[in-house]
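Researcher: Sit down with what I've pasted below and flag anything odd:
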Amino acid sequence: MRRLLVPLLVALALALAACGSSDDSSDTATTKSTAAQKPAGPACDKASLDLQSPGKLTVGTDKPAYPPYFEDDDPTNGKGFESAVAYAVAQQLGFAKSDVKWTVVPFNSSYAPGPKKFDFDINQISISPQRAKHVDFSQPYFTAPQAVVAPKGSAALAARSLADLAKVKIGVQVGTTSLDAVNASIKPSSQPQVYNDSNDTVRALKSKRIDAIVVDLPTAFYLTAAQVPGSKIVGQFQAPGGDRWGLLTQKGSKLTPCLNQAVAKLSAAGELKRLQDQWMGGEAAPELR
């Protein structure tokens, strides 16, 4: 009886061991299968990025580059909101400051169809469906209200509402969302005067060929403080749909998901807010409705 029992127990132990091994293999296979099915994130390590120049991050912006976005017309110095944001994004992607190369890109050219000579462009470029047909955008790094700036003696200074501005002569830069905001929110009785660039717009305001200009609020603070003596901010208003600025990339760029990741991390860490407070702080302007 004892002779039969021992072989029987051995056989039973081997059977149980075999069952356990099978279950473990099954669990391992299931884990591997689940892991394989989980979507992988973008390959955002520096070596995996699809760049204009290997090992270098090429960033575009317009010239001249104005405060509070850039200081001393020099994007490379890291001073100013957008210069600082660009370098913060670069750091998230693994680039040292010396690995960032800047190139001049006229504002209207940045979102035109066709191949780009930069990895991303940062130039207060508003995200819009029309532009998104030809280029890609990262998630927003800033949302700006619009503001009305008027020189000393202008009839626009008396405005207390958007309706009060309907009869004044307004100037805007071509291709900007400020033009859309003027037409949609102010609804002027005469067509706004449109200028090729910000220099022409400011000159028209200084010479009082127009009663007021519409720009984003941070630019308005700079204009009244440094560029147009005696001018004032009449008020601010929200652009229809919100004026969100994104990092612009070539249509279909593989870099865009990585820029989204970088911007999200900077936002979650409070870094974007810190840079905004540092470079674009200013007294609140009255709200126009």
